[in-house]
């Protein structure tokens, strides 16, 4: 069987199992098996596959039909133009979260301090903290996560992108272990899916760590714990950025009623996605 035939068979199977992007997923999975880019598949579509290559490809496609995310199957996810190692121990970085990085970079670049300090809470794969320090070389950062496995992945990604000397990684629950530190900006992409919505998520998302998804009854429980901690840590005129989901905009803004400034940002699909609050 050649590349073209293998892709056609995989596309049909993925489509039959209601996978949203059967063509793209099939090409990404075969590229992983052949260690090539997707352009190679198009220009070499009559090249035959070995039995081993075909077997590996079919195994990946079968796992994909069962709802396993492509990022976990290939072990990599692109975010902010950078490739990040991902495993089932971490949430897969989403394009929606790039808004947080872009906003953080904009705020930091306007900051007069020579070496501004960032704290990233619930760092997961490290996508936010690694991307931000990559784009702002003068930044110093601390990343915290309750999962030791996640921290190992984040450290690997920091090293891969040559920012490991700029980031301190700490195991901890929210900012409890960092109350002695000071920061100019805090980023937090914490679990914000309401508990009752977990069962309604797609099979693909259900394959991701529940610890990184469940945000309590209204999805904002962890942010209620985080905000008082952030108030003790932020320097004057410091910023706290929290990612939220659609429908959580006003409830999230209400958490900052006693802050002088809090603004709601929408993602490219015009969905409520980010709250940026500034302290006195």
Describe this structure in words.
The chain folds into two domains: 3-66, Helicase, Ruva Protein, domain 3 (Orthogonal Bundle), CATH 1.10.8; 87-279, 3-Layer(aba) Sandwich (Rossmann fold). It starts with a helix and ends with a strand. α8 (148-160) links the parallel β4 and β5 (167-171). The protein is elongated and about 65 Å long. The protein has helices at residues 3-16, 22-34, 38-43, 51-65, 70-74, 98-109, 127-135, 148-160, 203-206, 221-233, 249-254; strands at 76-79, 82-85, 117-121, 140-145, 167-171, 183-188, 234-243, 261-266, 272-278. With 280 residues, it is an alpha/beta fold. The mean pLDDT is 94. The chain has a seven-stranded mixed β-sheet with strand order 5-4-3-6-7-9-8, with helices on both faces. It has eleven helices and nine strands. α1 crosses α2 (22-34) and α1 runs parallel beside α4 (51-65).
């Amino acid at each position: 069987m050649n590349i073209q035939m293998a892709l056609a068979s995989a596309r049909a199977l993925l489509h039959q199992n209601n996978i949203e992007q059967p063509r793209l997923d099939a090409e990404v999975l075969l590229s992983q098996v052949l260690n090539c880019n997707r352009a190679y598949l198009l220009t070499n579509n009559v090249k035959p596959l070995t039995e081993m290559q075909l077997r590996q490809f079919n195994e990946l496609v079968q796992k994909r039909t069962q709802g396993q995310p492509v990022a976990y199957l290939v072990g990599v996810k692109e975010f902010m133009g950078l490739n990040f190692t991902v495993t089932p121990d971490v949430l897969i970085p989403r394009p929606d979260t790039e808004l947080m990085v872009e906003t953080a970079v904009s705020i930091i670049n306007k900051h007069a301090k020579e070496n501004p300090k960032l704290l990233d809470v619930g760092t997961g794969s490290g996508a936010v903290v690694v991307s931000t320090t990559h784009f702002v070389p003068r930044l110093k950062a601390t990343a915290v996560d309750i999962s030791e496995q996640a921290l190992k992945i984040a450290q690997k990604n920091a090293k891969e992108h040559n920012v490991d000397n700029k980031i301190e990684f700490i195991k901890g629950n929210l900012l409890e272990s960092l109350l002695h530190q000071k920061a100019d900006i805090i980023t937090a992409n914490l679990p914000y899916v309401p508990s009752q919505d977990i069962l309604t998520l797609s099979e693909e998302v259900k394959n991701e760590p529940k610890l990184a998804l469940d945000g309590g009854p209204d999805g904002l429980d962890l942010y209620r714990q985080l905000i008082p901690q952030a108030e003790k840590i932020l320097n004057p005129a410091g910023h706290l950025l929290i990612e939220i989901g659609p429908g959580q905009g006003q409830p999230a803004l209400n958490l900052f009623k006693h802050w002088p400034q809090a603004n709601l940002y929408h993602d490219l699909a015009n969905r409520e996605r980010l709250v940026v609050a500034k302290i006195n």
